[in-house]
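In full, the data:

***
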Amino acid sequence: MRTVLAVLFDGVQSLDVTGPLEVFAGAELHAPGTYRIRTASLDGAPVRTSSGLTLVPDHSLTAAPASHTLLVPGGHGTRNPAPEVVAWLREHGPRAERLVSVCTGAILLAEAGLLNGRRATTHWAYCPKLARDHPAVEVDPDPIYIRDGHIATSAGVTSGIDLALALVEEDLGREVALSIARHLVVFLRRPGNQAQFSAQLAAQTARREPLREVQQWITEHPGDDLSVERLAARASLSPRHFARAFQAETGMTPGRYVDRVRLEHARRLLEDTSDGVEEISRTCGYGTSEAMRRAFVKALGTAPAEYRRRFRPALAD
């Protein structure tokens, strides 16, 4: 039996705790005797979450059982963490077989020196702070979660669920993880290197109407000719003026925006339809399956067929 221990503190975000723990609890229902879930606060007293809920821990940190998976959630309480909590993590974190953080829980791991020399992520809004305050940590703001050795860090709330599902799949197999995902009405799991933002969320909305219209056009027509020249014509601007204005107002080049939109559209078709890879590549503007494969490997580290296998194994077979 694997003990999953969640560290609680005042100001913790409740979903950072309950999201991953619901996954492990679901695994225990499907495969009894696999996980034992425990929670602990500094002194064993109840803690008040950032949403006002009160969580009652099982133990104090000093009396907590040895853990297989040590879960460190985030929340407002990570801004000024109790030194005793950081000291406890510094001592006990290396003893856990798996050390997992959700959202700004990565800041607590960094404060304890456990992320030095490692690649890590956290919520996108706190990645600059993590990088600035802990230069020994290689901070990557893009993925929803990162595994580096026995340490795994994740971004916002839902990515903690994705990471927990990945860990359950690692421990108990795909079928158990799939059953839990179905019960929770979530994807089996998003790949860890999936971006925290969609293209539309990652890019700012342009202030000027012609550029906003072009952004929407790209999203609705990923298979069309989306060259700078054609897009500039839609905005009634010269290509050079359009490219500069688009980047200034959205924060990314037209080419980068087009690449993200096409990748997202292709992923949705792989997940939700039985269309073949060749057909999807044409629909999304890649032209050939090889061009789409290169785009997937570059952005996600996996080929389209493997991506589909993770989400729709029946279709991949």
